Each structure stands twice: as structure tokens, then as C-alpha cells.
TrEMBL record:
Residues 59-211 form the HhH-GPD domain. This is DNA-3-methyladenine glycosylase II. It comes from Hydrogenophaga crassostreae. It is an enzyme of class 3 (hydrolase). SMART domains: ENDO3c (SM00478). GO terms for molecular function: alkylated DNA binding; DNA-3-methyladenine glycosylase activity; DNA-7-methylguanine glycosylase activity. One of its GO terms (biological process) is base-excision repair, AP site formation.
Amino acid sequence: MASPAALPAFGADAPLYWADACRHLMKRDRVMKKLIPKHSGVSLQSRGDAFVTLARSIVGQQVSVKSAQLVWDRFVVLPKKMVPAQVLKLKVDDMRGAGLSARKVEYLVDLALNFANNQVHVDAWAEMEDEAIIAELIAIRGIGRWTAEMFLIFHLMRPNVLPLDDNGLQNGISRCYFSGEPVSRSEIREIAASWAPYSSVATWYIWRSLDPAPVAY
């Protein structure tokens, strides 16, 4: 059993459930028992508002982090404010000039329309189940299940999301539990059975095992 001293301290921005989650994971999982104390003082943190977070995810699809940041830096200065109504006023040529592909321009416009027309129920998300929110988000062009799951983890800070298709989670579980051997979705589910109801937290620490720098999404 891990001693109380092994549990790292967390900042004021940490989710309210984070310390309880760490205690649960360290008690239930041998890898977490060793991994969590290595990352003292850091935790999941939410960033931005819903529209901006999803817009950034679209801009970042299928390009490197560095390239995504360069395009975002050019795009973010185009509207007076990064809100749906202002994005809908932008000219396609200006958006393309920022480095966005024609497809990503279409996706960003569709995202803005969904928010402007209240087709996503932002105010109700706090009371909605994870799968109901995912269903709303993947109805928007350019947003798939993985992006919706990242949104649940990083923006809504939902505690029990298991992103089975995430490469980092797959690689981390392979290294930490299977000595580098490839893992199947069923094997990931088997490992994660002991993580519930804190799969998001365990996933975050698995990512830390690959890259100690906290993820900002």
C-alpha cells in the first residue's frame, strides 16, 4: 500500500476529485502506485471556452503541434473576438490565407453555425451524460469521437473518460503493462476496469509516462 506521504500535492486549479482519484488508482493499480507520485504538483486543467477549444482541435487535426500553433496564431487575430458570430463574418480567402485548408474552413464555419444556432446545448452539458455530449459534438462536421473525448477530458474535466482510440493511451499501456507489446482494445478495457470511476485521471498519468510535460488541449 502507498503511504499517505506518497500522494503528491496538487494546486488550487486541480479538479475537486483529483486527490480522491489518485488515492483510488494507487490502491487499485500497481502501475499507478508508482507513476502518480512521480508527478507531484501537476494535474489536469481546463483551458479556454467550449467554442475556442473545439476550434483549436479542428485547426490542429493531422498537422504537427508546431504547425497547428502557427496557423492558430494567424487565424485567431482575424475576428474581432474568437466567438461564433465573428467567425461567421470572416471571408473564406482570409481564412485560407491564415493557412487553413478548404476543408478546415468548412469545418470551422459549421462549428460556428452549430454554436450560433444553439444546436449544441452548452448550458445543459453539466447535467448531461458523457455519451449524450459526444453525440452532439460528433454531429458537427470535422469532430469525431476522439476529439469529443478529448473535449470531455480537457474542457469539461469529466473524470471517467476512456479514449480507446488515443495513440498515447495505447502506447503508454503497452509500455507500462505489456513490456512494449501491442495491445488490443479489449486489453485496454481489462486494464482500465480497475480505474473506474477515474479513467480520465489514469489516462492523464499514462500520458505523463510518455511525456512528463502536462498536456494542454
